Amino acid sequence: MNDDRGGNMRGGWRFMGGVGFLSTGDQAAKGNYGLLDQIQALRWTSENIAAFGGDPLRITVFGSGAGASCVNLLTLSHYSEGNRWSNSTKGLFQRAIAMSGTALSSWAVSFQPAKYARMLARKVGCNLEDTVELVSCLQRKHYKELVDQDIQPARYHIAFGPVIDGDVIPDDPQILMEQGEFLNYDIMLGVNQGEGLKFVELIVDNENGVQANDFDYAVSSFVDDLYGYPEGKDILRETIKFMYTDWADRHNPETRRKTLLALFTDHQWVAPAVATADLHSSFGSPTYFYAFYHHCQTEQVPPWADAAHGDEIPYVFGLPMIGPTELFPCNFSKNDVMLSAVVMTYWTNFAKTGDPNQPVPQDTKFIHTKPNRFEEVAWTRYNQKDQLYLHIGLKPRVKEHYRANKVNLWLELVPHLHSLNDVTQLIPTTTKVGTKTSLAYPASENKLRESSS
């Protein structure tokens, strides 16, 4: 398959992970092949969808987690522009749905691709200084040998993923968003209430809550892993601990577990999503934000957990109407079926019109004889001032300023507490000190980028 950037790519590279996103940081392997695969698929869809009764000017892409961050990156890439089916400048797609991930998430972009490429090469016997020879050696390996290697990135980051290559991703996503590169797209995005469950589950003895020493250690490790060792590290750590301590119930291990879950959720998912929604809506572009509060009943999920990462997926794809699966062994109820019908209506409405409320009204009388509460709710567009969002659960409502205090801790206060001198030297001057850039690209990774350049 030809690479639009002037070279040839072997099909074996166009997979996910190390064989889809490997980059040596130079011309030997520029990276972003996984994104180019997605773009090529969108080109094919744009050119052929009419033959299947579809509209090439009404194409929506959506994804969850890392898929959502890729969706966001696609809205920022000039490769998504231009629709060869017509003379339209509307692009290969017109709408995007980002579920539980954006390009500002700390795990959305790989900052040290060359480091991890060499790490992989050493593990499979391709430890060559010349990057062209190194890539050639890797290409001769069986793909399974490559994907089976355990390459551990810095925590909360990725080893192999999209990279800022000056081409497919021309600049860091924060700057591209500030420049309005994604203003021509309608965007729906949101998060689940308890996204950070997997991080809490890594803490010893969390079944009965989190002990004080485990809480302190978790916060300290979190600061070290994300922000390195700045001069103000102690102030940063203590501020985060203070903000995530429920002072009315601070001796309760279960309360500590709840606030620690909120910490991981807010930093890794909520703050990046709100920052993205703020930037997109600032250009007057249609933006819809949701917070998902429901999850199915299953023995695999602890009873204290909120809607965790991925818990919205069965409702998006209508699984409650089919029944439990191996991946989602849930005890689906009538309420689950109703909520799934509601979610699918919102998602498909948005894909059709850019408005989740139109054209199909919320009606689940085929499940319940009584009207559902969503029939009385109008999902209002998001804007920076009011930050309106839809609370998706069995008791839906439109609310404002989702977790605003904690979001602004991460977007406003933490960047000021943490020394940004080293960061701003590495970022173009169009980025303001204290903006959300430091959330996605913390100092520890920027120092690594500097040392490897």
Automatic annotation (TrEMBL):
Belongs to the type-B carboxylesterase/lipase family. Its main location: membrane. One of its GO terms (biological process) is cell adhesion. It holds the Pfam family COesterase. It is a single-pass type I membrane protein. The keyword Cell inner membrane does not apply. This is Carboxylesterase type B domain-containing protein. Keywords: Cell adhesion, Cell membrane, Disulfide bond, Glycoprotein, Membrane, Signal, Synapse, Transmembrane, Transmembrane helix. It is found in: Cell membrane; Synapse. GO terms for molecular function: neurexin family protein binding.
